[in-house]
Amino acid sequence: MTFSGSNAGAVTWESARMKSQGVASYPSFSTHNQGFFTRNMRRISSSLSSFSARDDAGYAKKDDLKPAQCRTPLLGRIRTLMARTSRKWKIRALITIILLACYILFYVTPLHYYWRRTSWLGGGQRFVIILAANVGGGVMEWKGAREWAIERDSVRNKRKYVARWGYELEIVDMSTKKRYAHEWRESWEKVDSIRNSFKKYPKAEWIWWLDLNTFIMEPSYSLQSHIFNNLQKHIYRDINEFNPLNLTHPLQANYLDPEALSPVGDGNVDSVNLMLSQDCAGFNLGSFFVRRSEWTDQLLDIWWDPVSYEQKHMQWEHKEQSALQQLYTTQPWIRSHTAFLPQRMINSFPTGACNANGNDTRIHYDQNDRDFLVNMAGCEFGRDCWGEMYNFRELSYYLNRNPWERFKEDLVAVIWYKLTGQKVRL
Amino acid sequence: MHYAYPPRKDSHPAPFRPRRSRLLLLRRSQLKTIILFGLAVLGFIWLLSSSKHKGPRVITGRPPVVVVTVFDDKYDNTAYSQHIKDNRIQYAEKHGYGTFIAKASDYELSGAPSSWSKVVAMRHAITKFPDCKYVWYIDQHALIMSPSSRVEEHVMGAQRLEEMMLRDHSIVPPESIIKTFAHLKAHDVDLVLTQDKDGLATTSVVVRNGEWAKFFLDTWFDPMYRSYNFQKAETHALEHIVQWHPTILSKLAIVPQRAINAYSSVEHGAQYKEGDVAVVFAQCSGTGTKSCANEAERYSQQWRASFGASH
To answer: Contact A257/B227, CB-based, under 8 Å?
Structure first.
């Protein structure tokens, strides 16, 4: 009670003093409350540690009677801080905290994964990546340590990518199957796998086929932002833009409709059902997209035909790829629904491939441009698949270091090297 | 407890009332208009964005049917071809159909037999009449006998087609294990064929215009098939694609032969009877009593009479 009484007395005294001072001073000019310390004296002094004689037994007894506020100074301090901040700042702080919490909740928990997956939010479920693994395995050759390592790295790369963006990954076993061994269909399982995947993932709109010897160099690119949000801008439907096969385009015939005679089909981006890229030798099916549609069903159905196969299989060096080229060349309905992507958008080559004319900016990987995917096409023919895979993997990690790693490696380590002449790994 | 300064009320009260958030200042009615306006804007954006995704072109069905006939070059400008043409034109005029009469040499077949030109002529007819609903190819050696039968009802009418079509029926009897679908609905049918004694017949074919028709005709006309030397050219190529490619088989209805493809003689298939839509002079020869011209002459009176009567 004495405490509160003295308190009340202090207030009256203070107010009286203020009043008298206000009266005594000049009305238009006040020297009070001018400096920072004068104004904030109480705040500063109250946040200073208060005197408390803990060792003193007499005071210790009194301490026990004190309210909880004094025993937990942190809580008390927070409470006074809360009391002191204005309402505006309180709301601002609250909003900041909520936003931060949301951010953490979104990115730390798997919530962002489900967001990106859901077809009406991020739309990740609309994309399925098919990775062809175990090519020719089982029958054609033994898999050595290098082959296993290639497979492990390639699969892990795609796993990480789909986990990041919420896509589906289907790893298909391309080992030579007995069921085709007596037929002519080796290496045509592509068609079957694509068909099965459309069945297995009913929400899939686009299937992205990837060969085993590919590496996604920039996992931070989503398919949507990289290609699909701006499809019309990225694709070219007129093959004359880049025409290594020297095909006549559009078709010349007196019976065809204007759409089939037009170099770009109907020009509507929604009618594109197949997107692939061309390398120096023509079509490349190491990385291509097909959209779920009736047209795609028809293509997958017609792709392998025994009559064409019987006549052409000796010339068709690349089997289904050559067959598609043949179809594109002769069939108007294929042309008007096929589009091409610039090769380096989805299918950059290392310098070892397609290098008859030296380095080609249309074909070969360039780390300065941060190409999306590298396809070590043809590395099994006299090149070192595992070496290339390893180098590209390390390059991808190097290019995609986080800011802290960059700080350590590009600044601290360099300075250390300048100072001491020693290279360090941080 | 000793405080440096005792707690107290702020002796410098704020000169103004604290500002209340702007949203609270809005009246409820104003809020409502704002929300409505926002919704309208969103709806407008949605309308704009959805109009971008337009489906395939709508086929209006004008004319409803195009009758396609291709003449070999040897019949060019003969009395025979004039007779057949006359038959087609009169039939088409009656129902407001289009006619598409072509010459085999109009098309580059790269050495394949001239009978292949029927495939490309159908494709050409679609180009010429992009809004037609059906294409009816009928052979040069055939006459349309019944002026009152409309293709879109008599053949493609949903109920009629479902009654007629042969379900679970071998494509090439008797040995083919590939059969027509057992549960096919009329609206799924894009191609109507008949069979004669040898297998599928291509002397009278109905195709529904659309993306599928282009796919089917382009596939049928594939140069790989033309260069393969099928014994019966495009007919065997058709048998081949129907049996190998389910996307074609699933759109196919086989109807009894007399529905669109009755033969003049019983040797090769079902014989024409009074009231059938058309008569085909199957495998008629160039000369002799069974020549195409003689056969046509036999039916000339009949079709002219029935066409005249129905005027």
So the answer is: no
